[in-house]
Every structure is written in C-alpha cells, then in structure tokens.
Automatic annotation (TrEMBL):
Belongs to the class-II aminoacyl-tRNA synthetase family. One of its GO terms (cellular component) is cytosol. GO terms for molecular function: alanine-tRNA ligase activity; aminoacyl-tRNA deacylase activity; ATP binding; catalytic activity, acting on a protein; transferase activity; tRNA binding; zinc ion binding. Binds 1 zinc ion per subunit. Its cofactor is Zn(2+). It comes from Biomaibacter acetigenes. The keyword Glycoprotein does not apply. The gene is alaS. The keyword Isomerase does not apply. Residues 2-472 form the Alanyl-transfer RNA synthetases family profile domain. Its EC number is 6.1.1.7. This is Alanine--tRNA ligase. One of its GO terms (biological process) is alanyl-tRNA aminoacylation. Consists of three domains; the N-terminal catalytic domain, the editing domain and the C-terminal C-Ala domain. The editing domain removes incorrectly charged amino acids, while the C-Ala domain, along with tRNA(Ala), serves as a bridge to cooperatively bring together the editing and aminoacylation centers thus stimulating deacylation of misacylated tRNAs.
C-alpha cells in the first residue's frame, strides 16, 4: 500500500523529473493578497507571477500546498463529514507552467502520473471539459486515448476558471475516477458522469489559463498561456489505499483511532461516525491554522478559526467528551504531518496552549448554552414552530459564545432552521454599539498574547529565493 507521504513525494519528484522546481507550500495566511481569507489553492502563492507582475527564475513549479476552504468564496465546512471527500484543511498537489508548456503537456503529464506512476486503471478515469473547449476534447483522445464517451462537457460554472472579474482565465478540465456502481446515487445525471456525489470522485483539476478578460468582459488570448493544476492529496490517497472515504486513509484514520481510544467508543463510516469525522478534520485545520499564526478571535480569519474550534468542541459533547480534549489530539496530528511540514513540531507547545485556552473558555458556557438551546427548541416544538428566532441565536452567540453555524448545526439536527436575517440584524446593531464603546470583547483576544507568542511564520516559498537574490 502506498502511504500518503509516498504519494506526495512521488508527485513532487515526478514533476521535478519533468523540469519543475519544487517550491514549499506558502503559509495558510496569504502574505500577498488581502482579498483572500486563507490559501485555498496551489496557485495562490503564484498569483503575481501569473499576472505578469513578478518573475521567477524558473518557468515550471510543483508544490504541495496547505489549503483551507472554510470561508470566503470556497467554503466546504458544511460538507465536512457528510461527503467522503471534502475537508476544511487539505493538501493540494500542483504543477504550474508560467507561460511555458500548455494544454497538451499538462494533459500528458497528468495522465502519465496517474496511470503509469500510480498505476490507476485507465478505464475508470473520466474527464470533464469546458463545453466549448474542442481542443481539450481532441487532446484527451489523442494524448490519453480516452474514448469520447468518457469526456463530459460541462458549463461555465464548473469548468471555466477565472482569478477575478478581470484578468487571466480559461477553461479547465477535471479528472475524476468512477468509484463504481456501489457508490452511485439516485440522480439521473449520475449515470452519465455528471453527478456531484461520491461515486464520481474528482481528483485533479487542470486549469488552462489562456485568456485575459477586460472590464467589458471581452476575452483576448494570452500571448503565453499558463497552466495551474490541483489534486487533493487526501482524495488520491483514498484511491491508492483502496478505501471508501478520505477518513479511512493514513492521513485521517489514525486521528479517528486516537479519538476512539480517548472515548472508548467505536467509529463507524456511516452517520454514527459523523462527530469523529468532524473532530478529525477540524483538528487538522486548527493545528495548521494556529501554527501559521492565526489565533481564535471575533473577526475575519480569527473568527473562522474560532468557529472551527468551537464546532469541534461541541461535537466532542456528542462523544461524551465534557472536558477540553482537542488540545490532546494536536500531538497526533503533528506526528502524522511533521514529515512534510516540520514547522509543526516546533510550534506544538504553542498550538496546544492556544487550543486548550480557547477550549477552556468555551467550556465555561457550552453546557449552559446547549441547555438553553435544547429547552428553547422544545418550547418551539410545542408551539409547532420550525424556526429558531434570530434573538435566540443571537443570545447564544452573545452570552454563550456560540457561532451561528454551531447553533444551526444543532437546530438542523432537530429539524429546525434559524432565522439568519434577524440574527444578522442584531449582530449589526451590536457592532455599531461596540464601535461606539470600544468594547471589551476585543481585549479578550489579547489574552493570547500572554501565551508564548509565535514567531511570525516563515514563508518558504519564493520569499526565500528573494532573500537569496534569485528573483529579478
Ligand atoms: P469539488 O467539486 O469536489 O468540491 P472543486 O472543483 O471545488 O472540488 P478545485 O477547486 O478544482 O476543487 O480544487 C482542485 C482539487 O483539490 C480538487 O480536484 C480536489 O481533488 C481537491 N479539493 C478541492 N476541495 C477540497 C476539499 N474541500 N477537501 C479536499 N480536497 C479538495
Ligand atoms: Mg468544491
Ligand atoms: Mg469540482
Ligand atoms: Mg475542480
């Protein structure tokens, strides 16, 4: 069986053998892009290179990039634990061409890696292309010998990629694997490979950056088209390790096993295992985010971290973990990941302290909050209502520190929805009040500064090259 560490290494060295320079993952906190919450794709750290604003001393690069998709444009938080393939934190393997090779080579490399290096069965692989991209349709048949029936044309939403409203953009092509009839769902589309369920496991996305879009929306061909690709390590590990879900791979299963030991409860791959999966996923996100310098708080990135952490803490209650426990999982995450991300070991103590501190603080109000919510819901049930009022969600937020999605999780489990609009209105009012009074809640987060502060994360991507004077 191929381990995830081996797959990651095979990928990077394969592309090195094709003339790519191995570049380290950037921090999860983007250093060059205030519009981006967290790094969510391998191309982020090369954005300026693709835009032609920055030049690197090489034209081909390969990375394994730390990504978080738990807020902003890409938010997979709700899918975590429900699908077999979505995480908040995951690693994206990628190869990049900065105006060097294009479609034909990108397709040839991806195909060679999957079918020759990894030995995946050719007849189980399908591809999607952008509906107007006849060139890709031809190339997949010519270069990879994929029959036309397994090339699915998709629309702009799925298969046309753009960096923003203007700038570089182009069609993309996704490689997915048919996990077989056993995994199919009931949708009619599922039969023809056009389904968003777990049967069709998207593995790899190849983006063909070939146009520039101007303010009027007009596309002009780029003189030097580029390539940006991304493949989820957890997903390819699932396939290589011949398991059903990402949670059964060597990246996540040991964390679940750790929680099994901690609770004396057994994990199941079905609905019963949901809290285990959420805790395993969130533990990784928490570890990596804090190690990259994020602390729990009430704004922006810090609030996303707080939401993830508190959500995991609440799912602990479902496994009868009533005392802080997440901080105990962190060393397990570090042992699994330190080989690829050595900074984790260095930051372990600090990360544990931050997690424990936040858990303890939340634990003070969690029980009372849960009680208040469940009583509230019972009352609403008696009144034959199905919506948790905004006031209740706001009170849970304000008094008990419940992020909205946590309240929503619980409400949903009982078949309730939450009046988000009135919640938001109350939040807005409070923000105004807080602004006027320079509120105390901001101070709480300064408490984290009393813990050994973390040195700013080193960005080992091309910053390192810059300091070595290699970048023009
Ligand atoms: P999906 O359709 O499955 O949500 P996507 O099309 O949103 O994936 P891309 O933006 O194309 O994903 O990202 C490139 C690759 O990264 C995907 O093909 C997949 O292998 C992986 N990936 C994307 N999102 C996640 C996630 N939330 N967790 C794990 N892997 C992911
Ligand atoms: Mg997605
Ligand atoms: Mg997709
Ligand atoms: Mg995709």
């Amino acid at each position: 069986m191929m381990t995830s560490n081996e797959i990651r290494e095979k990928f990077l060295s394969f592309f090195e053998s094709k003339g790519h320079t191995r570049v380290a993952s950037s921090s999860l906190v983007p250093h060059n892009d205030p519009t981006l919450l967290f790094a969510n794709a391998g191309m982020n750290q090369f954005k300026e290179v693709f835009l032609g604003l920055k030049k690197l001393p090489f034209k081909r690069a390969t990375t394994s990039q730390k990504c978080v998709r738990a807020g902003g444009k890409h938010n997979d938080l709700e899918s975590v634990g429900r699908t077999a393939r979505h995480h908040t934190f995951f690693e994206m393997l990628g190869n990049f061409s900065f105006g060097d090779y294009f479609k034909r080579e990108a397709i040839a490399y991806a195909w060679e890696f999957l079918t020759e290096v990894l030995g995946l069965p050719k007849d189980k692989l399908w591809v999607s292309i952008y509906e107007e991209d006849d060139e890709a349709f031809e190339l997949w048949q010519k270069v990879a010998k994929i029959p036309a029936e397994r090339i699915v044309r998709m629309g702009e939403k799925d298969n046309f990629w753009s960096m923003g409203d203007t700038g570089p953009c182009g069609p993309c092509s996704e490689i997915y694997i048919d996990r077989g009839e056993d995994h199919r769902c009931d949708a009619e589309e599922c039969k023809i490979g056009k389904c968003d369920c777990d049967r069709w496991r998207e593995l790899w996305n190849l983006v063909f950056m070939q146009y520039n879009r101007d303010e009027n929306g007009t596309l002009t061909p780029l003189p030097r088209p580029s390539i940006d690709t991304g493949m989820g390590l957890e997903r390819i590990a699932t396939v290589m390790q011949d398991v059903y879900s990402n949670y059964d791979t060597d990246l996540l299963r040991p964390i679940i096993a750790f929680v099994e030991n901690m609770t004396g409860k057994k994990y199941y791959g079905d609905d019963r295992g949901f809290p285990f999966r959420v805790i395993a996923d969130h533990s990784r996100a928490i570890t990596f985010l804090i190690s990259d310098g994020v602390v729990p708080g009430n704004e922006g990135r810090s609030y996303v971290l707080r939401r993830i952490l508190r959500r995991a803490a609440r799912y602990g209650r479902e496994l009868d973990l009533n005392e802080p426990f997440l901080y105990k999982i962190i060393p397990q995450v570090v042992s699994l990941m330190e080989c690829a991300y050595p900074e984790l070991r260095k930051n372990l103590d600090y990360v544990q302290k931050v997690v424990k501190f936040e858990e303890e603080r939340f634990n003070e109000t969690l029980s009372d909050g849960l009680k208040m919510l469940s009583e509230g819901i019972s009352r609403l049930e008696q009144e034959h209502k199905a919506v948790v009022p905004g006031e209740m969600a706001f009170m849970l937020y304000d008094t008990y520190g419940f992020p909205l999605d946590l309240t929503r999780d619980i409400a949903q489990e009982k078949g309730f929805s939450v009046d988000i609009k009135s919640f938001e209105e109350l939040m807005e009012k409070q923000r105004e009040k807080a602004k006027a009074a320079r509120k105390e809640s901001y101070k709480i987060d300064e408490l984290f500064e009393t813990l050994a502060p973390l040195p700013p994360t080193e960005f080992l991507g091309y910053d390192r090259l810059e300091s070595e004077g290699q970048v023009q």
